[in-house]
Amino acid sequence: MAGGESCAAVAFVHGAPMNRLARLIFVAAATAFVFMGQASAQSLLRDVEIEDWLDDYSRPIFRAAGIPANEIQILLVGDQSFNAFAGGLVMGVNTGLITFADTPNEIEGVIAHEAGHIAGGHSARSDEAYSAASRPMLLSLVLAAGAIAAGAPDAGLGLLALGQTVGIANILKYSRGQESSADQAALTYLDKVGKSGAGLIESFRKLSSSQIVHSQRVNPYLQSHPLALARVNALEERAKLSPHFEKKDSPEDIARLRMIQAKILGFMQPTQFTLRQFPLSDKSDPARYARAVAYYRGTDMENAVKEIDALLAEHPDNPFFHELKGQMLFEFGRVAESIAPHRRSVELLPGKALLRINLGRALAATEEPENVKASVKELKSALLLEPDNSFGWFELARAYGTLGNEPMADLAMAESRYNVGAKPEAAQFARRALKGLPKGSPEWRQANDIVVASLGVEAGGTRAGEDRPAPEKKPAPERPRDEVPDPQFH
């Protein structure tokens, strides 16, 4: 995770179609205004603790929505605006949505809303709406050009503005319809999983307050979403009919949210701001967690370790506290010391790729041969769990390089580049790997597959699909019992 300036927004954004809408508004020079606070660069974050937490609340809702729960990719966006988005089989959640919530149920409500977009196929259907909306824009351009050429520039500009306004209004009307549909679907899904719709309504109330403060003069028809106050009124009556409406989050669920929020704030806010927000007088677990992260980011390792050790003394089996301690020590050059907490985090949660990658890179960084061999084993285990983790492949390439195994280092680097979309570079590394790998071995075939997938041409120059001699079938070499299989061949 990384820190940065924060920004604020006033609406749930519905994925890629909103980006297309933004381009249309820019091209048409529309006079629509949406409050956005100080802008900042967004980044995708990975964190096992937060991802687990989001999974626990999202997957049951996805199943209730009738969408493939295990195929939905949940992205954590490092942006402190109160926002979420969905499209295709992807849902994104801003860190700000999590930190601004008072209860987990508020976030559940937003997740259910976004599930409504996915289940409704809104991302795909929006393409038709954008295509239809562009017609009056294009017609206005033709008519305006004719009027200007005929010597009536004022009339021409009026026609241009009219076409743009009609086109954009049509797009926004369609989008508002999708939002209302997703709102109603959200209540249905929440009811199916036995959760209250009160959190969704409370989220809209917060959204409404933001709109009142920042958007008093905004034309409600020039927004892609209904005004939040109108959404509250439309939903509240139905939500209160549910037998689950009065159901509250448990103290344990709220405590878990507070820990997640403290961690995010520690990473996302300036260090001094966090230390003021969580003073030393506050001895709660969330305060200690936030201070541990803040001290670490502020390079005060003595106090950072003191705070995380205090948490570990009370919660010795919390894998995320061990993970954070390992991260702190590793990043500040105390590599040998970082191995024990990283290893403990893996022992407590062995099925998490990110934890194994942390341990693997710490082992490799010692450059001791036995540790580096252990690193390869850990990294391969991680990549069996997440075969598309480009950073894991990169660390595996470094480990193989340290051991002097250049062909396997090149193969791992090819996988790393391929998984970030750098296909020409992936093919280059794969071809280098092919020169040193036993022909016909699983690793050789893996490298050849990368060349084909990247360029459509096999290493020998044959295009994919062309006739070629059948390869000689040889049994795969036996592996030692304690060796982890290669991630692509298991």
Distance between the termini: 31 Å
| Counted beta strands | 4
Q: What is the overall silhouette?
A: globular
**Main structural class:** mainly alpha
The unreliable regions are 1-40, 124-130, 132-142, 162-174, 211-226, 464-477
Element order: H for helix, E for strand: HEHEEEHHHHHHHHHHHHHHHHHH
Strand content: under 5%
- Estimate the helix proportion, in percent: 55-70%
The largest sheet, given as strand count, sense and whether it forms a barrel, is: 4 strands, mixed
The helix tally amounts to 20
Question: What quaternary form is this?
Answer: single chain
- Rg is 27 Å
Quickly count the domains. 3
Strand order of the largest sheet: 1-2-4-3
Q: Return the average pLDDT rounded to an integer.
A: 79
Please describe what this structure looks like.
There is one protein chain. With 490 residues, this protein is mainly alpha-helical. The chain has 3 domains: 15-239, no CATH class; 252-396, Serine Threonine Protein Phosphatase 5, Tetratricopeptide repeat; 405-467 and 480-490. Helices cover 64% and strands 3% of the residues. The chain contains 20 helices and 4 strands. Strands 1-2-4-3 form a 4-stranded mixed β-sheet, with helices on both faces. The protein is globular, with a radius of gyration of 27 Å. Residues 1-40, 124-130, 132-142, 162-174, 211-226 and 464-477 have low confidence and may be disordered.
